[in-house]
Amino acid sequence: MRMRPTLSWAPPEDLPPGTTDLKPATDALGTGGVLVLSGAGISTESGIPDYRGEGGSLSRHTPMTYQDFTAGPRARRRYWARSHLGWRTFGRARPNSGHRVVAALGRHGLLSGVITQNVDGLHRAAGSEDVVELHGSLEQVVCLSCGALSPRSDLARRLEEANAGFEPVAAALNPDGDADLTDEQTRDFRVMPCTVCGGILKPDVVFFGEAVPPRRVEHCRELVRESTSLLVLGSSLTVMSGLRFVRQAAQAGKPVLIVNRDPTRGDQHAVTRIELPLGAALTEAAGRLGIPVEDEVPGRRD
How many whole angstroms separate alpha carbon 81 and alpha carbon 155? Predict the structure, then answer.
């Protein structure tokens, strides 16, 4: 029997309580050398839901796993139909104040780097440089046969042409970029092959049940080693892909600070967890540090 990846986590009763005091995070940022680790919670203010917060998508939606995607054409048809519809909204999402503050902190030399678990590209769109997209990006597509990479916008255009009139109404949008549709709604959807070899196309992201590339993990570990502290923004840290860096930082004696409305799997390793809305909290922290934040960000996709 195929094992499903761990998607949920129940906090123990002895976790330390959260706070609304921004001072520890502001002090750490003022010192510099902070490594940011962001999760889905930083993008909710851009209209992209998270997995586990209040009303999170896991309450009604199980993400596609790599094993399901590669198992047969039916699953891929369902995935690409849902993902294609979701992309129409997902691809138009714009960075919010949280993304813009992170970019401003980076420009002022207070960050040693940014690792994001998100696949939405919003940190880069906000102006952050050298962002490590731990789970990849929906803006690229990879062929599982020949490895060719191509822009998601090209595939979106091909899918539009092959599925003229595909206008179903989705129940909801999910953090992985797909939309909730029924099997009946996706039954006649046409999937496009690789233009190079005719192989199977997959978004260039790490699906649940798929491993993060080892070189990417080691790069992130090096960023942790080079940092003075780790600031977690909007992540429950349920999955090991992000939690391992929290554990590494704590074991090395580096302060771990978390800004998240709900308890996280990393709270026991943190010096504080700040229970405030991310955009407002980061904007206030930037203000205390005298760092201006851009109000507008240029359009991010064609």
Answer: 12
Nearby residues of 221 by Cβ (< 8 Å), 6 or more positions away: 245, 248
Question: With contact defined as beta carbons under 8 Å apart, do 229 and 223 qualify?
Answer: no
With CA atoms as reference, report the closest residue to 301 among 133, 139, 159. 139
Say whether 108 is catalytic.
no
pLDDT one-digit tens code per residue, 67-76: 999 999 999 9
Q: Tell me which DSSP letter residue 168 carries.
A: P
Angle (CA) 234 239 243, round 5°: 70
CA distance linking residue 274 with residue 215, whole number of Å: 32
- Of these residues, 61, 99, 123, 135, which one is catalytic? 135
Measure Cα distances from 8 to 5, 53, 109 in Å.
9, 11, 36
**Could you identify the residue written with the tokens 């401003």?**
104
pTM of the model: 0.88
Higher pLDDT, 57 or 29: 29
The whole-angstrom separation of Cα 269 and Cα 58 is 25
Q: Which residues pair with 110 in a beta bridge?
A: none
